[in-house]
Design a protein that fits this description.
It is built from no helices and eleven strands. With 125 residues, the chain is mainly β. A hairpin with a 4-residue loop joins strand 7 (67-72) and strand 8.
Length: 125
């Protein structure tokens, strides 16, 4: 049974920081991609960062230089460090896991990730 559980969301002032966590259990494949996505009401889903089982990372232009994705293998936990937050970053954030190639597709948000978490809300004011 695959589970992805996000935590760490909340409310923060513009310019502040948050760190999101995504704990993964039960993923059955050795090669994988785990990505962070976000979506706000009326907006399209956006893939913002991802890491694959080889440690390669990718970022959307909208967060590059401000967000950092990392993985603690011992804890089976993916992190998203978000700095210099802006009001435009307000959204529901969630993580999703799928096949390794998905990390480097043109638009991750359109790709068939197999599993996703319930999400955690981030509000920047």
């Amino acid at each position: 049974h695959v589970q992805l559980v996000e935590s760490g969301g909340g409310s923060v002032q513009a310019g502040g920081s948050l760190r999101l966590s995504c704990t993964v259990s039960g993923y059955p494949y050795r090669a994988w991609c785990i990505g962070w996505f976000r979506q706000s009401p009326g907006q399209e889903r956006e893939g913002i960062a991802a890491i694959d089982s080889d440690g390669a990372v990718t970022y959307a232009d909208s967060v590059k230089g401000r967000f950092t994705i990392s993985l603690d293998n011992a804890k089976n936990t993916l992190y998203l460090q978000m700095d210099s937050l802006e009001s435009e970053d307000t959204a529901m954030y969630y993580c999703a896991a799928g096949k390794e190639y998905l990390c480097f597709t043109r638009n991750m948000a359109l790709e068939p990730f197999d599993y996703r978490g319930q999400g955690t809300q981030v509000t920047v004011s």
